[in-house]
Design goal:
The complex is a heterodimer of chains A (about 130) and B (about 325).
Chain A: H1 2-27, E1 28-29, H2 34-57, H3 65-72, H4 78-116, H5 118-128
Helix pairs in contact in A: 1-2, 4-5
Chain B: H1 2-19, H2 28-33, H3 57-67, H4 89-92, H5 96-104, H6 111-114, H7 133-138, H8 152-155, E1 163-164, H9 184-190, H10 201-227, H11 245-250, H12 252-266, H13 297-314
The chains are: A mainly alpha (about 130), B mainly alpha (about 325).
Subcellular location (chain B): Nucleus
GO molecular function (chain B): transcription coregulator activity
Organism (chain B): Alligator mississippiensis (American alligator)
């Protein structure tokens, strides 16, 4: 799994470096550097080909669209992961609280119903079997 | 009245027929998908004595409903093995390490902190220079599916004019400022002009506070400077005179005693701050022994000023 990402990362790094060098050549262009520029342009095309080849290996990877929003805003995409984890934990705690409350409610309801309808509740308990009030 | 009762009995029969054994079977497709009537069979209903067909989920639920006796809406309780929100899902999926990594310490806000080696100003929003990934997804560029190398004739289109690019086009060379705690002021002075960043609210507040504090601090400093009498260092020449200071060095304890006597008589207090040996014009021998100077040049200068004023008063 990591190998796929490593190769993509390597290709991306090479591509970025090539673009950086291309930028340097272009920023102060000299007629003698035309050959170098042509070479860099062709490297750019081969770099794009290499990146495109990596697509086949990563077809099963899905990226949430929200991450792109973070990147577009110039924010660290790790913040998205952080927020996701925090949200998951908060929701987990919330649901746990609800489940615990419902359990308490159930036990109290059974307790009160046995006072009012002892026979029916005995039947109910017989059907449910081992269902002790929590 | 009798007719009414008969009508009511008929109604009840229809009602019991709805929930009783006469209930029509749901379509096979719906049952296979897990869809069916929400309510299980009523109290009067009984399962067919012999089930020739293989038991589906629907039949099973009906059977349990039938065994539930007088109770409606009896359903099987979820098993304990089922994963619910009552368990800590982060520990369940072994995400503790990730949680501690991202939520334990502060994650830096900017994209340049995540990709420090990427050239150019990447912290700017993508909408600024129309380079957002969102626009790439929404409006993909119209091009062929494969990449073909540029031929010689194609490359003739990339002939450029000689000379440097204008300043506004040199975005590639501008790097985001890297913060260092030690040399904050120095960096801010020496930094190249950088296009304005998108500061967060907290950054903006901090800047405002600094602006508010700065004039007050300056005033206080000025007041302090005014209050402090500056001793003149005319007496202690900055230029070392060879041959003179070694002689003085031997008499330094004697001189110090004399000065102490003057201090006691005049009430002049010695300044606490001492200067470094390297800054002093007195000869101290080995400066490694004590980095701070013991000659008390400032003290001497103060005494001299005091003596002068006394002399002028006496004259």
């Amino acid at each position: 799994m990591a190998e796929k990402f490593d190769s993509l990362e390597e290709h991306l790094e090479k591509f970025v470096e090539n673009i950086r060098q291309l930028g340097i050549i272009v920023s102060d262009f000299q007629p003698s550097s035309q050959a170098g520029l042509n070479q860099k342009l062709n490297f750019m095309v081969t770099g794009l080909q290499d990146i495109d080849k990596c697509r086949q290996q990563l077809h099963d990877i899905s990226v949430p669209l929200e991450v792109f929003e973070y990147i577009d805003q110039g924010r660290n995409p790790q913040l998205y992961t952080k927020e996701c984890l925090e949200r998951a934990l908060a929701k987990n705690e919330q649901v746990k609280g609800k489940i615990d409350t419902m359990k308490k409610f159930k036990s109290l309801l059974i307790q009160e119903l046995t006072k009012v309808f002892p026979e029916d509740m005995a039947k109910y308990k017989a059907i449910r079997g081992e269902d002790p009030p929590t | 009245m009798g007719g009414d009762r008969a009508g009511q009995a008929g109604m009840m029969e229809n009602f019991s027929a709805l929930f009783g054994g006469a209930e029509p079977q749901p379509p096979a497709a719906a049952a296979a998908l897990g869809f069916g009537p929400g309510k299980p069979a009523g109290p009067g209903s009984a399962p067919p004595p012999t089930a020739a067909a293989p038991q589906s989920g629907e039949d099973h639920s009906r059977k349990t409903a039938a065994s539930s006796g007088p109770f409606y809406l009896m359903r099987e309780l979820p098993g304990n093995t089922e994963l619910t929100g009552s368990t800590n899902l982060i520990t369940h999926y072994n995400l503790e390490h990730a949680y501690n990594k991202f939520c334990g310490k502060k994650v830096k806000e900017k994209l340049s902190n995540f990709l420090p080696d990427l050239p150019g100003m990447i912290d700017l929003p993508g909408s600024h220079d129309n380079s957002s990934l969102r626009s790439l997804i929404e409006k993909p560029p119209i091009c062929s599916s494969s990449f073909t190398p540029l031929t010689g004739t194609m490359l003739t289109g990339f002939r450029l004019h000689a000379g440097p690019l204008p300043e506004q086009c040199r975005l590639m060379h501008i790097q985001p400022p890297k913060k260092k705690n030690k040399h904050k002021h120095k960096q801010s002075r020496t930094q190249d002009p950088v296009p304005p960043e998108t500061p967060s609210d907290s950054d903006h507040k901090k800047k405002k506070k600094k602006k508010e504090e700065d004039p007050e601090r300056k005033r206080k400093k000025k007041e302090k400077k005014k209050k402090k009498p500056r001793p003149s260092f005319v007496w202690s020449s900055p230029l070392p005179i060879p041959g003179l200071y070694p002689r003085m060095h031997g008499k330094l304890p004697l001189l110090r005693l004399l000065l102490q006597a003057i201090q006691l008589s005049t009430g002049f207090k010695k300044k606490k701050k001492r200067h470094l040996v390297s800054e002093c014009s007195w000869y101290h021998g080995n400066p490694r022994k004590s980095p701070t100077c013991i000659c008390g040049t400032a003290f001497l200068a103060g005494i001299r000023d005091l003596a002068r004023t006394r002399l002028t008063q006496a004259s």
